[in-house]
Amino acid sequence: MTIQEAIDYINHHNWSQWKLGLDRTRELLHRLGDPQKNLRFVHVAGSNGKGSTCAMLERILREAGYRTGLFPSPYIEDFRERIQVSGEYITEEALCEITDRVRQEADAMEDHPSQFELITAIGMLYFDQAKCDIVVLEVGLGGEFDATNVIDPPEAAVITHIGLEHTQYLGDTLAAIARTKSGIIKTGADVVLYENDAEVMDVVEAVCKERNCRLHIAQRNRIVPMEASLQGQSFQYLPAQTAFFLPLLGRYQLDNAAVVLTTVEVLRGRGFAITDEDVRRGLAKVQWPARFEVLCREPLFILDGGHNPQCAQALAESIEAYLPQQKVVYLMGVLAEKDYVKIVDAIAPYAAEFVCVTPDSERAMKATALAAYLKERGLKAKACGSVEEGITTALTRAASLGDQAGSVADGQQTTAKKSGVSDTGIPVVAFGSLYMAGAIRTAFPRLCKKQQRIIATKRRRAMSQEEREEKNRKISENLQKVLEELFAEQPVKLFSYRGVWDEANVDLFNEWAKAKGAQVAYPISQPKGNMLAAVPGDRSAWRKGKYDIPEPVLENATVLAPQEIDVIIVPCVAFERSGRRCGHGAGYYDRFIPACRPDTKLIMVAYDAQEIETVATQYFDNTIPIIVTESGVIRTSCIQSDSDQNPV
After folding, report:
1. How far is CA 101 from CA 11, 107, 135, 264, in A?
2. I want to staple 445 with a disulfide (CB 3.0 to 4.6 A). Which of 66, 170, 594, 616 is the partner?
3. Measured between alpha carbons, how far is 173 from 528 in angstroms, rounded to an integer?
4. Is residue 186 within 8 Å of 154, Cβ to Cβ?
5. How far apart are the C-alpha atoms of 426 and 259, rounded to whole Å?
């Protein structure tokens, strides 16, 4: 069985074809040896905040030294996200092997298990095989009849915020939904409850009394917010006044943190060794995609998987908090069954424009229908045929609107900072469905690079020729200092470049290096994005190559093998202080660098103006340890020693 065959088999058995109930899951797991009985759990149900709560708990438990399982729902980009052990996705080999084993038993059953029941069984087997100390288990739908509810009493049954959702399955009142979600409460478990509406609290309290379970209310007033920015937020947790930092954004994440910290107290009472330092490290390191997630800061692009009115209200509050007095371009897609009227009610006051896309779901509302509805409300909207087109359109419109606002601000003699105008445009906020979040996260780095190239090039071209020449001189001086520090008087084989257009020019440095005895090679473009490092035969042995870039005449040149090269001077269009780089997009350096020696020194050259706060990168992009600008030298966290591999 291949990975695609495994995923296709699971997805073939759509859950909507089955009735709710636990009999199929119980039978399937019994046929597989009841692996869930060998495991301990934190079981998490709720309408909103389940995923973030699970992510925080898992990371804290991992920092405390426990071998953790995590079972989130749904996945964003990779199907294997649904089953994780100590932060690592289930391997493709294990998923194929276990799915094949589960298939043999499931296909022999008279009442075939559904998609989610199959995934639950696969997860239980994998967690058992991995010998997890504890599994953080997220409910898929509801609680009482969810496949995950086949487990014995968990260490803690956690219920997050409850709102109206899936009313056709769970009930049409908050009380009815609360009763369904309270189905995860079992005698012997401690119960942690988000500070919900009174009718929800009453239902959960009654179920706890009935089943003789201790109830712990996660009191939001124990959280005292301190500082918040797009980098994260800090808070104190009373009564100890312990300070924590959380990279997840939004005031609602602090409410979720109250649930998490209350659950930690419960687990400590049940014998788990979790220190305050474990909690501090866990919260600081937690990652959870598509929850007011900043994918990029220049241009500012935020992704939020909010898909119901409660999430939309939380999104509106986050925009108000993090982007005050700013309008945004929304990239929006929703499922037709969602209450999109109330969703738009919540977020429309912050809208400059809407760009509409169709999420990848049979239940999706068509982009054209959503755009038509928005226009009926007097809002500016455009429908796009794909998520990729939507991203590009949203980024382009945001940049254009930023330029317009900047022109108005300049005309009024108002600074860009005061007017909220950035040279990267106004913010883009993508939201409305987790079904499109994965497609956005996958496509965004490549599409965002195009916009970042425009931004950095625009800044670079704003310099006068006199400014550029002075900066080039300083860059060359700083490069000389770095090379002398790295190699002293030792001659080196150097792979540099000749500056063209308006990029940083290192000709002065190249001449200095040759005078010091260095052998200086330059790029010659080859087919399929490859290049050679060629030392020109003499000063006249040059010609215009691809893109009109000067390159040595190959017939007169000496070609250096990648393994011979001691130093590579890497140009860029944009850079980030961590060493991430955005080139022109052809990938020449990303192909060349991995072929060099592990101890080859990599130095990136740029003007200060080319710095981008967060450069969008893809898996094949190289990270450069040393950055040289006219202001000085930046040594990044990926700095190499002689034994280091080139960072990729």
Report:
1. 16, 10, 22, 36
2. 616
3. 60
4. yes
5. 34
CA atoms within 13 A on the CB side of 293: 20
Residue 194 is classified by DSSP as E
Task: Convert the pLDDT of each residue in 463-489 to its tens digit.
Answer: 999 999 999 999 999 999 999 998 877
- Among 429, 296, 288, smallest CA distance to 355 is for 429
**The two three-digit tokens of residue 107, written as one number:** 């296909």
Distances (CA, A) of 83 to 71, 96, 137, 520: 5, 13, 10, 51
The token duo for 66 is 């426990």
Residue-wise DSSP of 264-300: HHHHHHTT----HHHHHHHHHH---TTSSEEEEETTE
d(CA 178, CA 200): 6
Confidence at 172, pLDDT banded by 50, 70, 90: low
What's the CA dihedral at 212, 164, 10, 619 to 10 degrees?
-110
Evaluate whether 51 touches 286 at the Cβ level (below 8 Å).
Answer: no
Cα–Cα distance measured from residue 334 to residue 343, given in angstroms and rounded to the nearest whole number:
10
Overall size of the chain counted in residues: 648
How buried is 542 (Cβ within 10 angstroms: 0-12 exposed, 13-18 middle, 19+ buried)? Answer: middle
Q: Say which residue the tokens 């935020």 belong to.
A: 302
Question: What pLDDT score was predicted for residue 620?
Answer: 73
Instruction: Return the structure tokens found at 254.
Output: 């602090």
| Mean pLDDT confidence for 20-41 | 95
Contact 610, 576 (CB under 8 A): no
Q: Which helix (H) or strand (E) holds 446?
A: helix 434-461
Half-sphere exposure of 625 (CA within 13 A, CB side): 18
Q: Which tokens hold the place of 193?
A: 């409850």
Tokens of 202: 């009453």
Task: Report d(CA 1, CA 547) in Å as an integer.
Answer: 47
CA–CA gap between residue 69 and residue 48 (Å, rounded) = 21
- What amino acid occupies position 66? Y
Contacts of 627 (CB under 8 A, 6+ apart): 575, 577, 579, 603, 604, 605, 606, 633, 634, 636
Contacts of 494 (CB under 8 A, 6+ apart): 483, 510, 513, 518, 519, 520, 521, 565, 566, 567, 568, 569
CB-based burial, 171-180: b 16+ in 10 Å, e otherwise: beebeebbbb
pTM beyond cutoff 0.85? no
The candidate with the shortest Cα–Cα distance to 263, out of 81, 39, 50, is 50
DSSP notation for 320-363? HHHSTT--EEEEE--BTTS-HHHHHHHHGGGEEEEEE---SSTT
Between CA 428 and CA 443 the distance in angstroms is 15
Measured distance CA(557)–CA(559) in Å, rounded = 6
- pLDDT band for position 171 (50/70/90)? low
Give the type of residue at 400: S
Neighbours of 184 (CB within 10 A): 28
Q: Is 623 exposed, middle or buried (0-12, 13-18, 19+ CB in 10 A)?
A: buried
Per the listing, tokens 């149900």 go with 45
Strand partners, 159: 45, 193
Neighbouring C-alpha atoms within 13 Å toward the C-beta of 317: 12
Q: How far apart, in whole angstroms, are the C-alpha atoms of residue 342 and residue 349?
A: 13
CA distance 594 to 202: 61
Whether residue 638 has pLDDT greater than 60: no
The residue with tokens 């220190």 is 275
Amino acid letter at 169? Y
Structure tokens at 227: 């500082």
How remote is the C-alpha of 332 from its chain's centroid? 18
Distance from C-alpha of 628 to C-alpha of 216, rounded to nearest angstrom: 55
